[in-house]
Structure formats: C-alpha cells, structure tokens
Amino acid sequence: LRKNLEDFTGPREKSDLAIVSFDIYADILNGEKNIFDWNVKQLFVYLSVEYSTKNNALNQVVLWDKILLRGDNPRLFLKDMKSKYFFFDDGNGLKANRNVTFTLSWNVIPNAGILPLITGSGQLSVPFPDNYETTKSY
Amino acid sequence: QLYYQVLNFAMIVSSALMIWKGLIVVTGSESPIVVVLSGSMEPAFHRGDLLFLTNFHDDPIKAGEIVVFKVEGRDIPIVHRVIKVHAKENGYIKFLTKGDNNEVDDRGLYKEGQNWLEKKDVVGRARGFLPYVGMVTIVMNDYPKFKYALLAVMGAYVLLKRES
C-alpha cells in the first residue's frame, strides 16, 4: 500500500483549503484469502486524512472514495488522482502542519451480516507547506 | 378459555416489548433496528434493507462510518456515511455526512443554517445488515389498509385458536 502525493494549501474565505494529488498502489486482501468471498457484495474504499490542529484535537476528512463491486479487481493502481471532495480545514490548521496522515480504508458490505471498517497498512504521514500558494490558478 | 387466550396474547405482546426495550438498552440506540428508506446509499443498501445499530457513548465517530441520524425537528432517520470529522479536545465532535449515491454532501438536508451534525443527532452506527427484510415495514407504511388487515388477521388468529 503506497501513496505519493503533491500538495499545496491556499486560503479560501477563512479556512485553509488543500489541493492534493496522489497515486495509490494497493492490494486489498483478507489475510491469505480473496477479499471478495461468498458473502462480500462490495467494498467501499476511501482515502482519508487525519491531523491535529490548534482548533481541533482531531480532524478526519475523506478525500476520495471508490466502490469496488464483487468481481472488480482488488488491486488498485491509480496515478495522478485528484481529491474528489474539497479538503477544507475547520480553521487555518493546515498551513505548516507537520503531520498530516493519509490512510486508505474500506468498508466491507456483506450480502448479509456485519459491516466492518478496515484500515489498510501503509499509512503515509506528510508535512504540509509553510506557505500558501498565491500564484497557481486552479 | 377466552380469558386464557387473552392472557396468552398479552404475554406474547409484553415479551415482544421486553425484547425490544432490552435491545434499546444493550445497543445504546433509541432505535436499534431501522429500515433503509431511500436509495441514497446504493449499491450498498437498497430501500427495504434492514440495519442493526449500536450507539455506545464512548464510540468515536470516524470518517467512513455509516451513521443513522435525524435532522432536528424531523422524524425520518437518514442513513449516510461520515465524510468529515472535527473533534475538540473536550470531546465536542461535529461531522458532515453524505450518501454514497449522492453527488453532494448532506448540508442541503440539515436544518436551515446548520452546517454540521453533532453527537446528539446520531441514532446509531450501522453495524450489521440484512437485505429486503424491512420491505414489510415500507409496504405497511405505504398501504395502511394492508397493515390493518394484517393486524386484524393476527388478532383473530390468536383469539380464535383453540387449544386441542
């Protein structure tokens, strides 16, 4: 599981907005077995970030998600992806944040039964830039 | 004999009520079993699916979790996924939700001027699910005559059943 990314923050109204692009190389497994066993209808895979700010002890934002149906390939090889959702902070805590952790997780949706949330190994912690981008146009 | 039948019926009803109340206590949720009413979480959940919820106070709300919540002032429970969480050190949590099958987040569903949900709006987190089973409730809601007919038949059966 590996994520590489480039990012920059820009102020928007009064909250920090981060624009992130990333690559995801992942293999979703269930130990040794195939993750799509007889009782798995789909996987809801999502990339989330977690970080702390002065304003809030814990922040989690989902940047991107994808639905993998039974029969789809559980190996993800995605390059140059953009986040699907706006990565706003509740305040200005992204600028110069030393520790923003990116994690890939998935929700197993069975045909019937329990709905577990699994976190992938291979999280990536990234420091965010100290300054806002002012000249790039989006 | 009729007296016995009525007592029997009353016992069945109170046992059912006790089980339901027991579930409420054990799961910590005011409504531990809910029926999915819309298609906003497809293809995971469809209208008529049944969800089993827990609502333990110390369970943190995490991004990616499926929660069932009620908007202040409305009765209808909504089943969507948490996509943003901001938690303060004192334990105050505010979060944003979105249906998997919706293009936009739920801010349009919240109360006028409300941008976030809080722990108090949560009915429970979805822990397990059974497909289709909840359709009965939806049918009974949409066709009330069906509900009355069913109740009448059940009542008649219990009261008229003769012990052999």
From TrEMBL, chain A:
Q: Where in the cell is it found?
A: Endoplasmic reticulum membrane
Gene Ontology biological process terms from the UniProt entry: protein targeting to ER; signal peptide processing
The signal sequence is: none
> A GO CC term?
signal peptidase complex
Presence of keyword Iron: no
**Coiled coil spans:** none
This protein's source sits in the domain of life called Eukaryota
Q: How does it sit in the membrane?
A: Single-pass type II membrane protein
Keywords attached to this Swiss-Prot or TrEMBL record, sorted alphabetically, are: Endoplasmic reticulum, Membrane, Signal-anchor, Transmembrane, Transmembrane helix
Q: Pfam families, from UniProt?
A: SPC22
Family membership? Belongs to the SPCS3 family.
Q: What does this protein do?
A: Essential component of the signal peptidase complex (SPC) which catalyzes the cleavage of N-terminal signal sequences from nascent proteins as they are translocated into the lumen of the endoplasmic reticulum. Essential for the SPC catalytic activity, possibly by stabilizing and positioning the active center of the complex close to the lumenal surface.
Q: How is this protein named in the record?
A: Signal peptidase complex subunit 3
Q: What is the lineage of its organism?
A: Eukaryota, Metazoa, Chordata, Craniata, Vertebrata
Gene symbol? Spc22
UniProtKB/TrEMBL annotation, chain B:
PROSITE patterns (UniProt xref): SPASE_I_1, SPASE_I_3
Give the record's GO CC terms.
signal peptidase complex
Q: Which gene encodes it?
A: Sec11c
What name goes with this protein?
Signal peptidase complex catalytic subunit SEC11
Query: Reaction(s) catalyzed by this protein?
Result: Cleavage of hydrophobic, N-terminal signal or leader sequences from secreted and periplasmic proteins
What membrane topology does the UniProt entry give?
A: Single-pass type II membrane protein
- Keyword Repeat listed? The answer is no
Which residue range or ranges hold the Peptidase S24/S26A/S26B/S26C domain? 24-111
**Membrane-spanning parts:** 6-26
Q: What is the lineage of its organism?
A: Eukaryota, Metazoa, Chordata, Craniata, Vertebrata
Q: Which family does it belong to?
A: Belongs to the peptidase S26B family.
What is said about its interaction partners and assembly? Component of the signal peptidase complex paralog C (SPC-C) composed of a catalytic subunit SEC11C and three accessory subunits SPCS1, SPCS2 and SPCS3. Within the complex, interacts with SPCS2 and SPCS3. The complex induces a local thinning of the ER membrane which is used to measure the length of the signal peptide (SP) h-region of protein substrates. This ensures the selectivity of the complex towards h-regions shorter than 18-20 amino acids.
Extract the InterPro entries matched here.
LexA/Signal_pep-like_sf, Pept_S26A_signal_pept_1_CS, Pept_S26A_signal_pept_1_Ser-AS, Peptidase_S24_S26A/B/C, Peptidase_S26, Peptidase_S26B
Where is the protein found, in the record's own terms?
Endoplasmic reticulum membrane
Has the keyword Cell membrane been applied to this entry?
A: no
Q: Where is the signal peptide?
A: none
